[in-house]
Amino acid sequence: MKTKEELRTSLRAIDHKSYPAYKSLAGSWSFGHYTLNIEHVQGDPFAAPSQLSVTVDSQTAGFPAGYWGTPWNRTALEDYLLRRFGRQAGHFSRQAKGSGKSGILAVTAPGQEVLDRTDCEVRSGTVTLRFEAGFPANGRTINARELEKIDIFTGVKIMPYDEAVQAGMITVMGQETDEAFLKEVMAMAIDAEAIPSVADSFKLVYTPFHGCGHKLVPEALTRAGVKHLLCEPRQMVIDGNFPTVKSPNPENPEGFYLAVELARANDVDFILGTDPDSDRVGIMVRDKDGEYKVMTGNQTGVVLLDYMLDAMKRTGKLPSNPVALKTIVTTEMARTVAESYAAACYDTFTGFKFIAEKKNALEGSGEGKVVFSYEESYGYMLGDYVRDKDAVTASLLLTEMAAYYYAKGMTVLDAYQALCEKHGFYGEKTHNLVMPGLDGLADMAKLMKSLREAPPAEISGVGVVQFKDYADGSVVDCVTGAKTAMELSGSNVLRFELADGTSIIVRPSGTEPKIKVYILTKGADAAERDANIKKYGEWVETLKK
């Protein structure tokens, strides 16, 4: 790690050079009692500011030793807290002269990428403050000496923790923070009588999979009126080693085995499980044969969307211009359900960053009010107080929905089946084409290039009627050859729309050496749906060759 003196020398060496020379400053620089990390350097004074952070070790920062290793339960609050408190810190201050955005220093404002853009992050052993800085320039020529006027060199000071608390510079957030969040969560209930009306007999099992949902989810459900809440005791213990499961993922049925045992012993139809971060939630429902079935994220989202729109309609809470949001790889059944209530449904790229941006854009322009957002991987974003998936609020509304159908003598699985009978039997399947080894990335690129430059005219004997390339936003009518543009662009994703209504989406994974292929199909009945999934799955297998 280089020193602050070396940083000053580097600055003076690039003074009056072309602005891109600032990129040589990227890296970590030691200032003795703290480290300056220059993580991203803007390439132009008129571009987005550079991303920086200051990291102080916990001993130097003077944070009480008891803070490290404490079983925090507030991960679910993170986005809410940033939105609540971050606005106070999102101001700009100009301390140096320069063109464009140069000379600006700002604490990073809260956004959608919560884990990447947290203003202040306290971890075991370190405290980090992230901010933005516009490196000074005259035109597009570096004015490096002005950078020394920005207080990253002189303004980072330390003081004992106790003194900072007494001076009002540190506020320790406690129960009042939970209460503020829970107040927002409880206000999301649509039919306030759905749970209390069946509370004497309605039962559910809950597991947090050793994670931070262990406090807020049971509290929310209890406040909503649930009397018979059975929490799996062995998984109510926070433990990052997850000793009772191979994978603490609500997508995996095997993780629910203890919850299923508890449900069987107590004659319970409905099981709720949140992942360790308490941002995703999955459910299991007992079927007519007495077996517990995991509902997929697509299925859960569709039935919850239908319930919410119906409940809002019958209680007079449905806005005049309701909107549902989903990702491009999430079931098309959601669109059908939304439109049956005269609600609009928009697609975004995968990730709640994009979902939240779309919500902000629609509501900011007055085009619509987003009432529900989700993606197929068990994430649901509800309300206006978060911009990320939130399992606490989703758990409350899923339980309200389960209670509503319980009063009708139905399970959530029955409700989903009724939707299939009404709207059609939709089905989804994701295939992972793993391409490991040194040639993996090249093989992935080769496959995407081949499908992009020579898209198939038919897949499994069914004609391709439309080809979408999300890289440039182009849409090709495969019958007429006409080419148009769509709203979404900028992502390496291909989509093939088939004559039978099936969509096949292909994209490389952003984190693993594999190509992901999504089959979104529909049948007149369950047999035709399953046959389509099998038929198109066989075509996907040919892509490996």
Give an overview in words:
Helix 8 (213-223) runs parallel beside helix 13 (391-407). It is globular and about 75 Å long. The strands form five sheets. Strands 1, 2, 3, 4, 5, 6, 7 and 8 form an eight-stranded mixed beta sheet that branches. Strands 20, 21, 22, 23, 24, 25, 26 and 27 form an eight-stranded antiparallel beta sheet that branches. With 545 residues, the protein is α+β, with helices and mostly antiparallel strands. The chain folds into three domains: 2-173, no CATH class; 182-422, 3-Layer(aba) Sandwich (Alpha-D-Glucose-1,6-Bisphosphate, Chain A, domain 3); 425-542, Alpha-D-phosphohexomutase, C-terminal domain (TATA-Binding Protein, 2-Layer Sandwich), CATH 3.30.310. The longest helix has 18 residues, at 297-314. The two termini are 47 Å apart. It has 16 helices and 27 strands. It is 31% helix and 25% strand.
Fraction of residues in helix: 25-40%
Tally of helical runs: 16
Number of E strands: 27
Stretches with pLDDT under 50, minimum 5 residues: 68-77, 85-96, 104-118
Q: Return the structural class.
A: alpha+beta
What would the CATH topology of the largest domain be?
Alpha-D-Glucose-1,6-Bisphosphate, Chain A, domain 3
- By CATH, the superfamily of the largest domain comes out as Alpha-D-Glucose-1,6-Bisphosphate, subunit A, domain 3
- Specify the biggest β-sheet: 8 strands, mixed
Please give the alpha-carbon distance between the first and last residues. Answer: 47 Å
Mean pLDDT: 87
How many distinct folded domains?
Answer: 3
CATH hierarchy: architecture of the largest domain: 3-Layer(aba) Sandwich
**Radius of gyration over C-alpha positions, nearest whole angstrom:** 26 Å
Shape: globular
Q: Strand share of the residues?
A: 15-25%
